[in-house]
Amino acid sequence: LVRLRARLARSQNALGKGLLSLLSADRLDESTWEEIEDTLITSDIGVTAATQIVESLRTKVKVLGSRTPEEVRGLLRAELLAQIETDQDRAVRTEPHAGVPAVVMVVGVNGTGKTTTTGKLARVLVGDGRSVVLGAADTFRAAAAEQLATWGSRVGAPVVRKDEGADPASVAFDAVSRGIADGVDTVIVDTAGRLHTKTGLMDELGKVKRVIEKKTPVNEVLLVLDATTGQNGLRQARVFAEVVNITGIVLTKLDGTAKGGIIVQVQRELGVPVKLVGLGEGPDDLAPFDPEAFVDAILG
Ligand code: GDP
Fold first, then answer.
1. What pTM did the predictor assign?
2. Residue 1: is its pLDDT beyond 60?
3. 86 is in an annotated binding site
């Protein structure tokens, strides 16, 4: 966790340093406030949140009169937290119920990090002593099933897969059946993320979910978003939210961007909490999303 925090801090530092130095100016005039707002918008936090933060900070700074650097930091910390915290549960539901495995579907556009996240999540669970089966329901690219199989043997989780072009729903069904037969704790199903048509995607993801639900409820539908893709990622998120009931967001590649502000926008738009963050390509680079640690990483 310490290592992950350090990595997060490195990527988010520019944002925090910039904001703190702007806010610490002797006189905060109109152009400085604008600069603060621009800096926030550059981090992909969104115009609405940036405006709210700046307005609230202005009021509080005015009330304070003179400000110490600690006060400035405290004010900014509280504003950022207020934008990120929600009262929704951020725990990923992976606990089996009454002897039936929990099922997690991982959805998102290709390249966002679905397969990697599936592998990393399995690693966390297996590390906690849980048994896991992985379903390679992205059957459109042979490479995807291959990649998941590599993760499976790396983390010690069997992978259910079929030939390229097989029906994704039948792979999901087989994975869940296998999970039930073996009495495992959690089945994680990696899906295909072709966004060529909304109806195509809806049909496919809907079918995968329905077929799983013939056997057992789907506990989580995690939407994987690449933090470096900004507004484009947000557009993708909207499409997925329309076609399937998302229960949590995984924001990947936060290690490679200072645009972590996208967390605020995506939660606000979808009304769903960010549950996990990806902080690298390695098996241990997945962490629960902790708003306080995130804000502290930004502010250094
Ligand atoms: P998928 O097509 O959605 O299944 O995406 P993949 O899991 O194949 O990931 C696409 C690329 O992103 C791969 O090169 C991964 O190693 C990389 N990747 C995934 N998650 C992260 C992350 O959190 N940080 C970084 N730096 N790279 C990541």
1. 0.92
2. no
3. no
